[in-house]
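Quick review question:
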């Protein structure tokens, strides 16, 4: 018997090798989790209290409440990732989600003490029972049956377009969103909104959905993430209910899909989504999409999907400038229970430049300080309270980070950038990498040259001057089969590096 393994789990391991089913895979993961946690911790936090869902190399663990989600992420993420990798392969990841049905089950089916620790009035479920329950993917906030393809009801209200603080970087996208939300015919389909993390993409998608429910209450509007689409498709494959799945997704009036870059490198999901897209577009149905990158640089999507994404209107959201950040902070502070000096809000807008979420986090810190002290938050107070948060938000960019984003964009390998090759498809990305390394990292010319193939400092200086010349002359560069201005490429790479 392996250490920490109960007889029931050992017996399940024996049976696991004789079957080839999804529950069997779940059992193997459960066994790996218990081996890492021990029987006591496993019984207290996992046995009969979670659901597992496995999609490709991703393990999703559903728990009964947001509190449990935060706790278990902090306590068990490392062990669960290790367990998933031992069963699903080295690229496996472990994620957590909330399934409200688990909370209901826990409240009605098990007795708990006042401290929340299960009592022994009723035995906990065995891993086999848990694995059987886990044969249905856990969808956040949903207790629907396995054949249901409706997305879950959200526990919070959808964002409103009227709450979106606009700036020069977002006016086009907001205008397009309002046109769609009005329910009137528009000359473009699809609408594709791209931008870095925290720039407002999901806000606009939710705002379109909410506005359509006001202006077109009878319209069938479906808002979903690309990952959820993939999960529902996987579920339909397992349940042999593909006709129902396709009828559900291809009969909507408006399909809104967030984070479409999830489809990259997933050929089966791409094909299914392409057929759904074509069916909707051919029948005049509206499609709204979002992604962190422009369709042309989603290099791991099929060419047909990329061309479809570009066939409508592509709107790019930029990281807000300081004036827009100040407007955002002022609007959000006005909705908080606190008293903030104008200088304190200006300090946030100037110091936190990464995303709107960073601004919200800084404001939450100051609002919590006000709740404790009941004192007006001044600029001096903001500087002191947010000092640690500023340090945490600093992004230290390394040479390896620059190499990674350049390789991902141009589809080359690190050893290509370090090689002696002078072909344009290699030399141009190499010069861009050297330029960004000099601009965004603390590395000296010599260090950069050594990283990119043992070159001397004069080579790096020459690359820096060359890229600067491209920028001044607004030169173009080829990415896949498309031509982009060098300014757009540099801006995109910088955004990816700053976002991490």
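Suggested answer, residue by residue:
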């Amino acid at each position: 018997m392996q250490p920490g393994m109960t007889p029931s789990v050992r017996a399940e391991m024996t049976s696991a090798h004789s079957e080839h089913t999804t529950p069997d895979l779940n059992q193997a993961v459960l066994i790996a989790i218990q081996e890492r946690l021990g029987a006591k911790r496993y019984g207290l936090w996992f046995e009969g209290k979670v659901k597992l869902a496995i999609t490709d190399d991703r393990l999703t663990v559903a728990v009964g409440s947001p509190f449990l989600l935060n706790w278990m992420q902090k306590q068990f993420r490392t062990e669960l990732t290790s367990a998933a990798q031992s069963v699903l392969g080295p690229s496996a990841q472990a994620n957590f989600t909330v399934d409200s049905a688990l909370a209901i089950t826990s409240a009605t089916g098990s007795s708990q003490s006042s401290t929340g620790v299960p009592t022994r009035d009723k035995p906990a479920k065995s891993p086999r029972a848990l694995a059987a329950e886990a044969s249905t993917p856990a969808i956040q906030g949903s207790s629907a049956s396995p054949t249901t393809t409706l997305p879950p009801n959200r526990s919070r209200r959808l964002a409103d377009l009227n709450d979106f603080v606009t700036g020069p970087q977002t006016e086009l996208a907001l205008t397009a969103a309002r046109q769609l939300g009005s329910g009137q015919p528009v000359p473009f389909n699809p609408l594709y909104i791209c931008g870095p993390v925290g720039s407002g993409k999901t806000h606009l998608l939710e705002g379109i959905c909410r506005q359509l429910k006001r202006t077109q209450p009878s319209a069938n509007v479906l808002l979903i993430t690309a990952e959820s689409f993939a999960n529902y498709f996987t579920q339909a494959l397992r349940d042999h209910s593909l006709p129902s799945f396709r009828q559900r997704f291809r009969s909507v009036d408006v399909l809104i899909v967030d984070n479409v870059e999830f489809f990259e490198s997933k050929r089966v999901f791409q094909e299914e989504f392409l057929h759904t897209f074509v069916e909707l577009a051919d029948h005049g149905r509206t499609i709204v999409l979002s992604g962190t990158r422009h369709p042309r640089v989603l290099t791991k999507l099929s060419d047909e999907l990329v061309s479809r994404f570009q066939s409508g209107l592509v709107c790019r959201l930029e990281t807000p400038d300081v004036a827009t950040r100040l407007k955002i902070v002022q609007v959000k502070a006005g909705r908080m229970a606190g008293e903030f000096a104008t200088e304190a809000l200006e300090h946030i807008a100037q110091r936190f430049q990464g995303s709107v979420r960073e601004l919200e986090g800084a404001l939450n810190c100051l609002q919590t300080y006000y709740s404790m002290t009941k004192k007006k938050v001044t600029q001096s107070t903001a500087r002191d309270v947010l000092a640690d948060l500023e340090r945490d938000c600093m992004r230290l960019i390394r040479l390896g980070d620059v190499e990674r984003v350049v390789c991902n964009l141009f589809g080359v390998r690190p050893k290509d950038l370090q090689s002696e090759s002078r072909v344009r498809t290699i030399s141009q990305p190499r010069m861009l990498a050297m330029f960004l390394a000099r601009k965004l990292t603390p590395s000296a010319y010599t260090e950069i040259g050594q990283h990119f193939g043992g070159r001397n400092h004069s080579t790096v200086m020459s690359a820096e001057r060359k890229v600067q010349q491209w920028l001044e002359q607004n030169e173009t560069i080829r990415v896949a089969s498309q031509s982009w201005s060098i300014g757009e490429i540099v801006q995109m790479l910088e955004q990816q590096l700053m976002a991490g």
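Why it works: Residues 1-21, 107-155 have pLDDT under 50 and may be disordered. Residues 322-393 form a domain with the Helicase, Ruva Protein; domain 3 fold (CATH 1.10.8).
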